[in-house]
Amino acid sequence: MLRNTVAALFLALIPSPGHTPPQGVVSPAAVDAFVTRYQEATGLPGAAVAITKGTRVVHAAGYGHTPSGAPMTADTPMAVASVSKSFTSLAVMQLVEQGQVELDRPVRGYLPEFTMADPRAAKITVRQLLDQTSGMADSAFHEKSLPQPDTLRGAVARLKTAELAAAPGTVHSYHNTNYQVAARLVEVVSGRPFAGYLRAKVFEPLGMRYSTTIDTDRDLPDSARGHLNILGLAIPLPEPTGFGNGSGGVLSSAGDMARWLIAQNNGILSAASMREMRTPSRLDDSYALGWYVGRTPRGTPVVEHGGDLFTSTAYQLLIPQSGYGLAVMANTGMTYSDAKTLMDGLVTLVEGGHPETPSGPPYLATDALFTALTLATIALAILGTARSRRWATRHHWWRLPPLLMPAALCLSVTPIFGLLARGSDIMWIQVVYLYPTFMLWLATTAAAGIVVTAARATSLLTRTSHSHSDTGTSDSGSSGSSGENHVSAS
């Protein structure tokens, strides 16, 4: 009897699998204080934050400023990048609920224009687009480095010569083109442009007055542009060329994202459709239909998705057990992960903890190192060029080719990046945005190598020319002297 009582008490102390961790009370003042500390420590110029619980908006605010210096408010539209995938998935699921689309039927049945060079593409289903198991991948179709389309129709049309990386339904591969095809499917089935569909069926019904979706980087308003953080300084720069509608084109504000978060648990879709959207594929237990499934550091189950542009980032997260929803947008690029880091801190606040503030701007030491190397490289190039004549007296042609190796590396940086990133596609200028001070040093080293090589080669040519000239003069003088001696002897 005593043994059974002790056992019962012991089991009562063990949290059950459905146990909800204690949730802290999140006040707007605490959120403001954390975001402000973060900005002061990192130099983040602008951010927007939305926090909801159930059907209530806990907090929605803007912080800092846009690239033009305008104050960031709760109504300032910002880019949400790949968070857009959850909007595209929702649009498809609305068509599913209306009986116009079936998830497990081939895409081509709804979108005849979707053709690829690979015949296996005919078997790609709508679900496989949304859970990223279609077989399309960066390694087989270079969606970023190829000429960019202007419309969703163009995004699908350029697939006509593309191959698949794997058979449909066999491999999970995160690939933006999946969602561009899905958005085009929405256009064709609904009979209206994708932006018009989202406006009529999602944004207006939810009261998201400041939200829209765009096609390319050229359509970004000033408020949705961003910065690179170099040596602790936020430098406004245009987003590199790219197409993103369907996969990353949504613009939204803190206030609108609060409405979006509330709608995830408030009837925008049926409960069955919501479960479908949050059920991971059998090939990847973390990716569902436009959402990732994961846990907080404390083990609380969450549904989330991040978004990265080269000049801004975003993140959204739902905590189903507590009813919390959070969204963050930051106007610095993916290298710095400000939206994700802010989200981690806000989740800590929600769960009753105390978030840590970074000690300083991201990569400040790395930037300082490569800046110093760049200046040293310029100094060495000047010195090497000035001493090229002296160098030519002691060295030969075979010492020149190694100086051109940095130039070769600079030209081949994109395939090297793709190899290191397991086949990810990227443009050269996008690598510059990811690693600005490293690429500055590499480009400077490449230019320095070319300049010094040219100077030394010129010096070697001049020295060789003079040597040949001197040899010719010496031979001519020797012959003349012999002739004079011969005449004298005669």
TrEMBL record:
Alphabetized UniProt keyword annotations: Membrane, Transmembrane, Transmembrane helix
Domain called Beta-lactamase-related: residue spans: 31-334
SUPFAM superfamilies per record: beta-lactamase/transpeptidase-like
Top-level lineage group: Bacteria
Compositional bias segments (type: Low complexity): 465-483
Transmembrane segments: 363-383, 403-421, 433-455
Classification via Pfam families: Beta-lactamase
Region of interest: Disordered: 465-490
Cross-referenced Gene3D superfamilies: DD-peptidase/beta-lactamase superfamily
PANTHER family: BETA-LACTAMASE-RELATED DOMAIN-CONTAINING PROTEIN, D-ALANYL-D-ALANINE-CARBOXYPEPTIDASE/ENDOPEPTIDASE AMPH
Protein name as annotated: CubicO group peptidase, beta-lactamase class C family
Organism listed in the record: Nonomuraea solani
